[in-house]
């Protein structure tokens, strides 16, 4: 491209004492210098100027009119003073600016010439945060502008033979900085490209200087942030940047938009969590602050993070506005505060800009795989994404009404985009949540559909898809297949707390409590407010015999979710094992009342001691403590309105056992089946998949199953009764009262032989 010479208004800026700032803290200083120059470049553009060079600690801009250049400089200096006041330390980039009129040569976006050199010399005469101009600029400024000028006289400047008259410029008191004037015809710049003034943005950037300070509506947050206190931090700060993304506020004046705003928060957390260079607090813990008036310092102290992102979203008439600010909670200073505008259809691009700004502000280095993951959205169909966010919002609550709405929305999302793997994954998870809450029938779900759903959710790796796979493998007792899935989860998202929860469960199951405690503590560290991490950590501490460590964790879990009988049972046992019998017996009474209110009969092992992934050491301590607390050992026949006449005695059990047969029954969440063979082998199935084998026998009047390795299930003794009101067709002709619980089932002949 040919060089071009022209007469231009040139702005030159640099940071005062940048070397000293870098010596104080290189990373923070670098970030803040870059932030200052980005904001200056934006301001130059809003007043119709062009930034030609941005290097190191200096910037060069070009304008067509002197009034635009001076207005831009004063606008930026006012904003920068306000911005620097937010920092809680002395690393505050102060910029000085010089403006000249002179000949310049422009080529390849580089500008050189006497005009640039003169602007640089003028800038060196300016005070920190100040502005100096040449006499030619002073004469070109209209008298109507509310500027004050202070003559600095004739200055001898290096590189110039003649002295140059210099003025400093400030804004009249009580005056506001002029907004850019509209330009009717856009100016033609190099290469034929058109440059027009962005009047709306410029108006936004126009600041009102009122008496003692600046009102900056673009960043509507209180700049006085109380720093967090290191001595109050609940956890030590990680050795890499740590961040909590607070729920974005819904400024749409429409409560129905809450799902969208919450979804944007969750998407930000999901994207940031994929970055190995960041420590990111999980969704559950940050959403504990939703709707609460709470200080940044308190959030940082409770969650153990240095940085906190907060902001708001306004969605109206197809338009979207995101305001966000990133705060260094340890200093109380703001790293950046920006506004992002666009259409609702641009939601993916706007989210990428916010994520990119955080990554840049915290100087996070992206691995190639991480950069690729951020570049690939879950779906490119906004309507599918919107339906997914609706489903995600309702999925967080596990009531029948909310799960019904979640199912409808998620099914719409995958109908709009059949390749939307994350939506398939959450839909699969919904099946498991419905099963745990005995809502499968009400929702019209068929648990046999899970393998197909799971296959679709794994077409593109997501942590939600892997977690659904773990639920499925766990339900089939296919524990050996779970470890590789967990490893893939860690590689995909090292900040996903449930990854470490699952790994902790497997470690506890094999008796490695030391490893389990490490994993569960990491899960709690990433998601401190999630009871599904706190409670299991307490249970593993109990398994390890650390009763005093277990009690406060279990108290927190049981108080947070009083309907979780596994938390309450573990706490009851811990109280009893520690000798706190009054608390143990009171807790046991609450447990029995809760189980009965849920329609369950209460037995020691059937109600509390049959957790799938529990190690025998845990079950032993749990049952010992519950027995001490007074939980009954067995169910009596009269509790079931049965009499001794209904009992199937030993000889009849022996006769049935000589024939190959299968027992089929229904329990909340699906259908179970066992196949019994005359050689004493029994094969156990759940939802059509084999999960265990056992050796069975008849001992007295009881049927006994002893599970084979690798299953760690305890031996199961059952008394069998005929159900007076049951039928073979309804799968309830028998009632089996077992150590593991009470089951109804029917029996059928079995043709096949044992494998």
Overview in brief:
By secondary structure, the chain is α+β, with helices and mostly antiparallel strands. It folds into four domains: 212 residues, Alpha-Beta Plaits (2-Layer Sandwich); 148 residues, ABC-type transport auxiliary lipoprotein component (Rossmann fold, 3-Layer(aba) Sandwich), CATH 3.40.50; 83 residues, Serine Threonine Protein Phosphatase 5, Tetratricopeptide repeat; 112 residues. It contains 26 helices and 26 strands.
Question: Mind explaining what this structure looks like?
Answer:
With 755 residues, the chain is α+β, with helices and mostly antiparallel strands. It folds into four domains: 4-215, Nucleotide cyclase, GGDEF domain (Alpha-Beta Plaits, 2-Layer Sandwich), CATH 3.30.70; 230-377, 3-Layer(aba) Sandwich (Rossmann fold); 378-460, Serine Threonine Protein Phosphatase 5, Tetratricopeptide repeat, CATH 1.25.40; 638-749. It is built from 26 helices and 26 strands. The strands form five sheets. Strands 1, 2, 3, 4, 5, 6, 7 and 8 form an eight-stranded mixed β-sheet that branches. An eight-stranded antiparallel barrel has the order 19-20-21-22-23-24-25-26. Strands 13, 14, 15, 16, 17 and 18 form a six-stranded mixed β-sheet that branches. α2 runs antiparallel to α3 (66-85) and α18 (497-509) packs antiparallel against α19 (513-526). The chain is elongated. The termini are far apart. The relative contact order is 0.05.
């Amino acid at each position: 491209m040919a060089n071009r010479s022209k007469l231009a208004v040139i702005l030159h800026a640099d940071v005062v004492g940048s070397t000293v700032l870098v010596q104080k803290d290189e990373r923070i200083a670098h970030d803040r210098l870059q932030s200052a120059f980005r904001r200056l470049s934006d301001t130059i553009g809003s007043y119709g100027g062009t930034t030609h060079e941005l290097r190191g600690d200096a910037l060069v801009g070009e304008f067509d009119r002197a009034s635009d250049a001076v207005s831009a400089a004063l606008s930026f200096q006012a904003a920068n003073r306000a911005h620097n006041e937010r920092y809680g330390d002395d690393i505050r980039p102060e910029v000085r600016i010089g403006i000249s009129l002179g000949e310049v040569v422009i080529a390849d976006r580089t500008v050189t010439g006497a005009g640039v050199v003169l602007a640089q010399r003028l800038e060196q005469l300016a005070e920190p945060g100040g502005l100096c101009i040449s006499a030619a600029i002073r004469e070109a400024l209209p008298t109507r502008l509310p500027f004050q000028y202070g003559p600095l006289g004739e200055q001898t400047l290096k590189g110039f033979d003649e002295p140059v008259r210099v003025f400093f410029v400030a804004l009249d008191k009580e005056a506001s900085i002029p907004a850019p004037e509209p330009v009717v015809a856009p100016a033609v710049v190099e290469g034929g490209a058109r440059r027009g003034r962005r009047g709306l943005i410029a108006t936004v950037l126009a600041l009102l200087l009122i008496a003692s300070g600046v009102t900056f509506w673009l960043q509507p947050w209180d700049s006085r942030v109380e720093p967090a206190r290191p001595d109050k931090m609940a956890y030590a700060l990680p050795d890499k940047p740590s961040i909590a993304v607070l729920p974005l506020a819904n400024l749409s004046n429409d409560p129905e938009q809450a799902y969208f705003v919450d979804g944007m928060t969750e998407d930000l957390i999901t994207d940031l969590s994929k970055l190995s260079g960041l420590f990111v607090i999980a969704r559950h813990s940050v959403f504990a602050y939703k709707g609460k008036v709470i200080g940044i310092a308190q959030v940082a102290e409770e969650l153990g993070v240095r940085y906190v992102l907060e902001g708001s979203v306004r969605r109206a008439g197809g338009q979207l506005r995101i305001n966000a600010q990133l705060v260094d909670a340890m200093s109380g200073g703001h790293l950046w505060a920006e506004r992002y505008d666009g259409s609702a259809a641009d939601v993916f691009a706007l989210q990428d800009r916010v994520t990119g700004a955080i990554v840049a502000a915290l100087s996070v280095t992206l691995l190639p795989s991480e950069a690729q993951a951020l570049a690939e959205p879950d779906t490119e169909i906004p309507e599918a994404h919107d339906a997914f966010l609706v489903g995600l919002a309702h999925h967080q609550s596990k009531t029948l009404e909310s799960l019904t709405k979640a199912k409808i929305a998620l099914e719409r999302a995958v109908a709009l985009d059949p390749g939307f793997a994350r939506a398939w994954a959450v839909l699969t998870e919904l099946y498991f949540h419905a099963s745990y809450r005995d809502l499968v029938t009400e929702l019209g779900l068929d648990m046999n559909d899970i393998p197909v759903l799971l296959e679709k959710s794994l077409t593109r790796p997501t942590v939600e898809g892997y977690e659904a796979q773990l639920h499925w493998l766990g339900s089939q007792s296919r524990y050996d297949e779970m470890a590789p899935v967990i490893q893939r989860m860690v590689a995909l998202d090292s900040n996903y707390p449930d990854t470490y929860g699952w790994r902790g469960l497997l470690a506890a199951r094999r008796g490695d409590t030391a490893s389990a405690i490490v994993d569960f503590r990491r899960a709690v560290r990433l998601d401190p407010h999630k009871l599904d991490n706190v409670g299991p950590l307490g249970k593993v501490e109990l398994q390890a015999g650390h009763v005093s460590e277990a009690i406060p964790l279990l108290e927190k879990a049981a108080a947070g979710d009083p309907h979780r009988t596994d938390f309450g049972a573990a706490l009851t046992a811990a109280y009893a094992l520690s000798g706190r019998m009054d608390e143990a017996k009171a807790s046991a009474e609450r447990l029995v009342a809760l189980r009965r209110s849920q329609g369950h009969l209460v037995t020691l092992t059937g109600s509390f001691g049959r957790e799938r992934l529990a190690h025998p050491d845990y079950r032993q301590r749990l049952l010992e403590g519950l027995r001490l607390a007074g939980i009954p050992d067995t169910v009596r026949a009269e509790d079931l309105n049965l009499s001794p006449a209904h009992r199937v005695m030993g000889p009849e059990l022996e006769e049935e056992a000589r024939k190959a047969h299968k027992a089929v029954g229904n329990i909340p969440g699906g259908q179970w089946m066992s196949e019994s063979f005359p050689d004493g082998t029994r094969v156990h199935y759940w939802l059509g998949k084999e999960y265990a084998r056992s050796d069975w026998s008849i001992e007295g009047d009881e049927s006994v199953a002893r599970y084979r390795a690798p299953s760690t299930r305890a031996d199961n003794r059952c008394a069998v009764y005929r159900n007076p009101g049951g039928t073979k067709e309804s799968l309830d002709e028998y009632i089996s009262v077992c150590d593991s619980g009470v089951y109804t089932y029917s029996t059928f002949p079995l043709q096949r032989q044992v494998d």
